[in-house]
């Protein structure tokens, strides 16, 4: 079996079969359940409110997905290095690029699992509202590059930082900064700095696309520029991981 | 020659870590690499394996010059390594773990093959047990099994008997001896001089980033004044020994009323001396080892003594 | 009191189903294809006819749709942002006798009772011309159904917990067997 596939399988197992990985999945599922349960008691929701709910839930899924990917990415390299299980990998007859791609594949699998986990929640809260299917599609198209960018960023941080703790701290702060548009009100985002930040921030690109498709019923084709921004950040994160890995391990 | 290292130099962040390490290991050798903590043993091994870039010197593994770019995949595929601080994937079973590494080495062993490998290291009854439940000694055995996955030509082990009970240590010694007889070269980093004396056909002593001694144990001890020393308690004054026995095998260093302090020459096993003494009428009631020749040599060389 | 009522009734009858402001009148009626019992998510259409009954042309005409909620205690104007993309029409000049027929689609976003009216203004006129009100009701549709949410919100975390428990049992089983 191809070494990258072997490594990707191992990374997937780390998430789905280890106690640590399952606890993370449980935490993510718990957060989504809590949000979904908050809605059950409110029977006054309008169609627009429901679209807003689906939009909010997709935003939460993207944020949680990015956090999970960041943790998985950081642990995949820095964590393994600290636990001492990375050296046997380095000494196996696998190219450095193969090891890195295996790790990147592991982050991708983590998002795939998270996405699959989120679909029942979206169906539960959004099936009687509007644009649920479009919401699932825009989550896949925009959410994927944003989440993976953070995962690969975590991998890169694992190369550059001196410890897992430092890598995770740096990554989490970056994630919070990037996700701040979710917390800021529209008025702050309309300021000069807010607009510049909004224009280049991958999270903003994602949530603006979510709003356009789910709430305003715009088509996916009109979100191309948001996709470009998110993909640009994804490429930058891959480069960051690649150069960090190459710098650390010849 | 399996491994040949000559005048190895390594600098990290401007600091000179190694400045003149040499090492040569051929098929069937069990090479003991000794040195104080921080002397550069692990750095030497990591550089040979390509994890650290050498700044000078020459490294050859299986006849391939790996000084500049590290060992290529084809070379790494024939090396088994057991690092000192090895980590494992606690959620895997022993069988899954070996299967994973076998796949990385491009192998596809059957469950029975893996079982046999676990049997060799004494883990055959734990093949479906999750590694997270393993003791330290069991993990050490599993690490050894992993190192043997590719049927290596060269085995590099850093403190392989860590965490093992005496029976486990003996089993590891037997495995290493068997491998050496099969022509595998074994590079052993250890602080246990017992293991070195029992197993190693050759040793190298590193101190402060350079090799201070290299050769067989006997050659090194003969070349130095370091001998194994013993104290013998005698029930009565012993008769004089004929010259054919004394001086060749041992010499009396000092004695008082009941205690005789002797030094056994390099290359002579102490257990061959006692029967001779008994036969000559020495009424020995107690034997105490005072110090080892190898230990004394090691201490002398790594305290800035002569090489 | 009776005279006042008479005058009031006369004024109302003058407004009637068509609004008069000089020559301009606006009629409104719901589309025939509107559902009888509309609920959230449905689309309604209202058809208006704006007619110039005067002898001169009317310049700079603009007509727009307005919506108000009339539930007791929740009386408020409704922002048409999400209800309708078709909010106004304009006509440079309406000749005498000319009519403008317009369909006004509305997507029903929220449950409640509503009143829709189309208003118009002209460049030269100084009064607002409105159609009569057209009332409609929107039935509530449950957009978050507990019978969907509860199984998912409770079931998924429970499934993960059960899986974790099973993995733990599997981990411990060989070790326990060894001990015995």
Summarize the structure.
The complex is a heterotrimer of chains A (250), B (307) and C (180). Chain A has 250 residues and is an all-alpha fold.
Secondary-structure blueprint:
The complex is a heterotrimer of chains A (250), B (307) and C (180).
Chain A: H1 3-16, H2 19-40, H3 47-83, H4 86-91, H5 96-126, H6 132-160, H7 164-183, H8 186-189, H9 192-200, H10 202-215, H11 224-248
Helix pairs in contact in A: 1-5, 2-3, 2-5, 3-5, 3-6, 3-7, 3-10, 5-6, 6-7, 6-10, 6-11, 7-10, 9-10, 10-11
Chain B: E1 3-12, E2 15-25, E3 30-34, H1 41-48, E4 56-61, E5 64-65, H2 73-76, E6 79-82, H3 94-104, H4 111-120, H5 136-147, E7 154-158, H6 166-181, E8 185-189, H7 193-199, E9 202-207, E10 210-215, H8 217-223, E11 228-234, E12 250-255, E13 259-264, H9 270-279, E14 284-291, H10 293-302
Parallel strand pairs in B: 3-8, 3-9, 6-7, 7-8
Antiparallel strand pairs in B: 1-2, 1-4, 4-5, 9-10, 11-13, 11-14, 12-13
Chain C: H1 2-15, E1 24-30, E2 43-52, E3 58-69, E4 76-77, E5 88-94, E6 99-107, E7 112-121, E8 129-130, E9 134-138, H2 146-179
Antiparallel strand pairs in C: 1-2, 2-6, 3-4, 3-5, 3-7, 7-8, 7-9
Unreliable spans of chain A: none
- Principal-axis shape of chain A: globular
Q: How many helix segments of chain C?
A: 2
Largest interface: chains, residues each: A-C, 35 and 30 residues
Helix content of chain C: 25-40%
Assembly context of the chains:
heterotrimer
CATH 2nd-level architecture of the largest domain in chain C: Sandwich
Structural class of chain A: mainly alpha
Portion in strands of chain A: under 5%
Give me the Rg of chain C, rounded: 29 Å
Radius of gyration of chain A over alpha carbons? Answer: 19 Å
Q: Major sheet of chain A: size, sense and barrel closure? A: none
Domain module tally of chain C: 2
Key features of this structure:
heterotrimer, A: 250 residues, mainly alpha, 11 helices, C: 180 residues, alpha+beta, Immunoglobulin-like, 2 domains, six-stranded antiparallel sheet, three-stranded antiparallel sheet, 9 strands, 27% helix
Describe this structure in words.
The complex is a heterotrimer of chains A (250), B (307) and C (180). Chain A is globular and about 60 Å long. Chain A starts with a helix and ends with a helix. In chain A, helix 6 packs parallel to helix 11. By secondary structure, chain A is mainly alpha-helical. Chain B has 307 residues and is an alpha/beta fold. Chain B has ten helices and 14 strands. In chain B, strands 6-7-8-3-9-10 form a six-stranded mixed sheet, sandwiched between helices. The radius of gyration of chain B is 22 Å and the shape is globular. Chain C has 180 residues and is an alpha+beta fold. In chain C, strand 7 and strand 8 form a beta hairpin. Chain C is rod-shaped and about 100 Å long. The relative contact order of chain C is 0.19. Chains A and C meet through helix 2, helix 3 and helix 5 of A and helix 2 of C.
